[in-house]
Structures are given as structure tokens and as C-alpha cells.
Amino acid sequence: MLFVIWLLRRYNSVAQKMILSLTVAAFFDSVAYVMGDTHLEGSLCDFQAWWLTYFWSALAWVCLITLNLYLNLVCEISTNRFELYHLTAWGVPLAMASLPLLKGFYGPAGAWWITGDHVAWRLWG
């Protein structure tokens, strides 16, 4: 997908930029899964947990693309505020991933990667 967007770079629409951002987020999200679960404790474990949480930004991009389609097609509102989309799609997951990291709540907890002492944070991150 990235190659196609690069190849057809003369089309510089908001929709194409949003799909490019979604592709980048999905790529980096998949990198965390390729890392595997061999890092049981330590900084690499915490980094992988942060990485997995942060790149839920792919989900944020899907939601924003849907919102953009709704605003354009149903409400007939032209959306040219691409900077606001970037701030939302990258900023909200950054806060969601960084707060548990700064508080030291990440750790060897299996699929949830937030330790059992801080179960409420699983809903946040």
C-alpha cells in the first residue's frame, strides 16, 4: 500500500493521507507481534508493552477514517483539518500508552501486559 501511494503521489487528498497513516500505524503494530513473547521481564518487556499499546493508533485511524466518511457523505461537511486527525490518532494512544509506563504498571502479565496489581489500568491501556 505504501508503494502504491508513493507511486501515485500526485493524488494528495485527505483520504489518501489518512490511509497512508493507517498503513504506517498498522505496520508498526505488526512489528510488536513479530517480536514475540520471549522478553519476560525488564526494559525490553516494558518497551514491547508500550509499543503494543501505542500502536492501537491503527484503530484510532480506522475510527477517524469512518468519522471523515460520515462527515463528508452524510453531513456534507468538508474536512480539511488533517492536523487535528494526526493529533487525535497519535496523541491519544501516546497518552494511553505512556501513563502506565511512567507509573511502572507494565510487566510480565501475559496477554494483558499490565501486572495484576493494577487491573483497572487494563481498561485504560
Average residue-wise pLDDT:
77
Query: How many domains make up the coordinates?
Result: 1
Helicity range: 55-70%
> Biggest β-sheet: count, sense, barrel?
none
Q: Could you state the order of secondary-structure elements as H and E?
A: HHHHHH
Strand fraction equals under 5%
Number of strands: 0
Secondary-structure-based class equals mainly alpha
Please tell me how large the radius of gyration is.
17 Å
Shape: elongated
In whole angstroms, the N-to-C terminal distance is 28 Å
User: How many helices?
Assistant: 6
Low-confidence stretches: none
Transmembrane segments: 52-72, 84-102
GO molecular function, one term: G protein-coupled receptor activity
Keywords: Membrane, Transmembrane, Transmembrane helix
Membrane topology: Multi-pass membrane protein
